[in-house]
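TICKET: design request
STATUS: open
ATTACHED STRUCTURE:
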């Protein structure tokens, strides 16, 4: 029989926060590509692959009050964050480009936005992945203290 571990109210708020972050990030990426018509590069697609499922996983976990979802969320958010960091460094540090340059479509070092001189689309994705990861880690620690 499956036993679902229900979280305390702090855990539920963290799940809700992480879900909202993933929702904003997903709608933000769709806004940039579908409304502003920015063509995503290869690394942007990989970031989307790791962000989009989080909307559903975190949404279902939040409504079911299931804190065990962190074991599915953490790998996605950490890997997605690493891709975002590499992409951001490739945009901001000259010569940091990967071993395999983008060969089709938009180059990965193109900056469609550059707010305040440092906020680019990969930076926004990195921020979202980081907030989700921190929320899941904080939830894990809160669970260990209860046990």
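STATUS: resolved
RESOLUTION: sequence designed for all positions
ATTACHED SEQUENCE:
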């Amino acid at each position: 029989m499956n036993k679902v571990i229900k979280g305390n109210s702090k855990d539920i708020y963290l799940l809700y926060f992480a879900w909202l972050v993933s929702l904003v990030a997903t709608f933000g990426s769709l806004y940039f590509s579908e409304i502003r018509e920015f063509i995503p590069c290869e690394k942007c697609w990989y970031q989307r692959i790791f962000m989009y499922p989080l909307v559903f996983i975190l949404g279902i976990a939040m409504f079911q009050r299931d804190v065990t979802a962190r074991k599915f969320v953490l790998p996605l958010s950490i890997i997605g964050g690493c891709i975002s960091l590499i992409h951001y460094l490739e945009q901001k540090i000259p010569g940091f480009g990967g071993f395999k340059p983008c060969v089709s479509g938009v180059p990965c070092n193109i900056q469609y936005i550059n707010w305040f001189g440092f906020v680019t689309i990969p930076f926004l994705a990195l921020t979202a992945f980081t907030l989700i990861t921190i929320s899941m880690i904080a939830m894990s620690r809160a669970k260990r203290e209860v046990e």
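CLOSING REMARK: The radius of gyration is 17 Å. The CA atoms of residues 30 and 86 lie 21 Å apart.
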